[in-house]
Request: fold
Amino acid sequence: MPTVSLANAKQFSCPAECTLLDAARTQGLVLEHSCRTGRCGVCKAKVIHGQTQPIKFEEALNNEDMQAGYILTCCRAAIDDIELDIEDLGRLGSIKIQTLPCKIDSMMKLAPDVLQIFLRLPPNNNFEYLAGQYIDVIAKNGVRRSYSIANSIHENTSLQNKLELHIREVNEGIMSDYWFKEAKDNDLLRMEGPQGTFCFHEKPARNLIFLATGTGIAPIKSILEDLNNDQQYVDPKNIYIYWGGRTPSDIYWQPTFANLNINFQPILSRASEGWKGRQGYVQNAMLADNIDLTDSVVYACGSDKMIHTAKNLLISHGLNSINFFSDAFVSSN
Ligand code: FES
Reply:
């Protein structure tokens, strides 16, 4: 069976017909990823040596990437021993993915097309996650959709065992129809998670910049809740949030963290009557503020278009590419 070696000298074996991402995970190693379907590009890696074969279509790669030897680890298997230029994500590897029953604990509209759902997990579960990760919710008919967890782990509070989700209505979306038309308190569902590798990284940079569009604010809220409870990582950093929406009702949340000093910038992408705030795209608004990108870490969550544009733009303005972390929302009906 082929052996895969990573840049930090860790190794795992990869059975035929198993993606590199899945093979690593079954052996306790987590590689950076988000969608697992070839669409977001977060799992892009360079093959230094050896042969791989595609199992799924690598939608997020362009010709230049392929010619330069890049692959998507969620789409490819190894044919012979290979070496990749990426490292595993350490502590994420110790968190187990579980499938658990859950019930709707409460529901509330945050905006005309955004629902806040709290899911209640069984008592005495040992579900663990890092702020920023997501879960798959599985409905009775087997339909499964991914949602970021919007709260951090709350122990010994009324939120213990509860996962907060922000769910946007999708036109003719099968799962969306369930949430917006049928769901009620105590409905029984299943969830599988935690998934994804979007989480906080301890870095020496002075500026922490969060970019979000739409419900991409959810995992950022979770990360900020965590930081608010554990200030050692953020003192004395400058924290910025740039959150973009199309209408004023898209800006359905305000940061109120007693221990964090946050510069919050809501931005609408189009003109709206009565809106006195900023207008444009989050990445452009951030650049206009002249933050020193050579001393920054950026976390971006939301549309894949925003993420790709922001990444290229910010790197061209001095951000080190290893200081850009993202979670792209790819929509499904
Ligand atoms: S393209 Fe592989 S995780 Fe998204």
In short: The domain at 95-195 is CATH 2.40.30.10 (Elongation Factor Tu (Ef-tu); domain 3).
